[in-house]
Specification:
By secondary structure, the protein is α/β, with parallel strands linked by helices. Helices cover about 40% and strands about 15% of the residues. The protein has 2 domains: about 1-30; about 35-270, 3-Layer(aba) Sandwich (Rossmann fold), CATH 3.40.50.1820. The protein has helices spanning about 5-25, 30, 40-50, 95-100, 125-140, 155-165, 180-190, 195-200, 205-210, 230-240, 265-270; strands at about 55, 65, 80-85, 105-110, 145-150, 170-175, 215-220, 245-250. Strands 1-2-4-3-5-6-7-8 form an 8-stranded mixed sheet, with helices on both faces. The termini are far apart. The mean pLDDT is about 85.
Amino acid sequence: MNLKPWQSWPLLVAGTYAVFCLAVALRQHKLLYFPEYLTDAAAREAFAFYKVARWPDAAGAEYRGVVKVTVPEASLTNGTVLVFHGNAGGAHDREYYCDTLQKLGWRVILAEYPGYAARGGKLGEASFREDGRATARLVRARYPGRLVILGESLGSGVAASVAADPEVKADAVILATPWDTLASVAAKHYPWLPVRLFLRDRYDSVAYLRSYGGPVSILMAEDDQIMPASSTLALFDALPRADRKRLVRVPYVGHNEWFGQVTDEQWRAMLTPAP
């Protein structure tokens, strides 16, 4: 069948679009994850710069994160906060969590993802979920007392999946600039792509948190250009118990500027919510 030029254009456009979608689908992990890879030598230099140390510190133990002790260990009596950081970089450059929360009496462990910094392993939701749960179980076994799971951005999806593990028994969860599902965020940023059809990593925080009965605090940066407010609010609205959830709005800041605007009083309320 011979097509006239004007008849072939729709086929050409459709074919080009299909090829583009396939390319995005095949490279989605490259487009989703932005780890900072470090050799052992580079990691030693970076960790020294940020004044952090590998955790756990037992001889022969697998490195799972970093810690920074800015106050005496004996003063960290409130419990432990396990932090799952945002997408880019590594746990070591989130040491400001330690500076802030340890002054409030909390031990802070900055979890690292497989494939980030000097850790080997595979990128992806399943890998991060199972590794995060293993880290949380180790924290729970090593440090009796309260355990708070804190996740930021990408880490909020990981934190939700870790909190869903009944063996972790988290006492509270804090999610900063979170989503309801990764698919909903991707669909808002790329409405011209059928992301719901080919997205492999879903990070369905709504589904994960259905099996978590503890208190959940949601931090929302009101001028966030990366995490749509509608996705954050959808997660908050989906949490079933009004008496077990808290929404903290941080005004006039974007996705990466919220941390310095949270007061000590707000941190205390989220870390030790009323029963």
